[in-house]
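Re: folding output
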Amino acid sequence: MDINEWWGLVERAREAAGDRADDRDPPDDPLPDALTDVLAALEPARIVDFAVTAYEVTASAFRWPLWNAAYLIEGGCGDDGFMDFRDGLVLLGREVFTRAVADPDSLAALPVVVRMSRGESGWIGYETLEGPVRRAYERTGGTADAFRTAVEAADRGRIRTGEPGGATWDPEDDGLTRRHLPRLAALFLE
């Protein structure tokens, strides 16, 4: 699937979710269902293409600086948490995602991050993009098993990154964090 088409589908879901598209915390978060609705209008093979492209997009965010930003924002962040963080970051849209991968400190400008720094409600992470995508596939008449099989077949042979890219530092070293993520540090460490 063309990356512009892929991000266009995410944007259509964000538009459907309206002003509630930027926070995964509310129990009635409309964005996952909106994404399912948008994808369910596609042919099953296109839904599989969306899933494979989603893996590629989130893999591009598999970077230490972003992981350390997630660690700071979330008060800790392990492997599963960072997968959730990257999936949720995708749901914030192409512009936010691209900027955050290039400059994780840019996340300090997001209202949801500012709220989180104050101990108020808010969340970026999303458990898994696979959920809404699989539900869309099932709406077209497929099964969860058929979805997994189709994605595995379409994704076969792709090389997965073993270690995150970019420079890392100890995220519990406040001095290093202030140097690498000054705007986020000002929110979370002050």
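--- second protein (sequence, then structure) ---
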Amino acid sequence: MQGNGVLLERIALNLVQNAVRYNVPEGGWVEVVTESQPGCAVLVVANTGPVVPAYEVENLFEPFRRLRTERTGSDKGVGLGLSIVRSVVRAHDGSITAQPREGGGLIMRVVLPR
């Protein structure tokens, strides 16, 4: 695929870091899958973690927003990771979606044109 290698790497790095950081302390898992589809490349990062209400999902992409936590003063970052990911995906004419997993965690899906 065509694009800025450093920025494309940032997409994967931020999603995997978030999947690890916002996971359950014991028995959790992170799954990373890539696939090629006609005309696009797909990256899916899924994890266990806290339950994410569907109405909160879009807010996770807003700068300085995290799920039910303080906006600053946490060891889990300041809430810029997903807003950066969304910006990079959009700059590459792609799309990103987040879907809550039943029982907790998220499935993050990035689709980028080739």
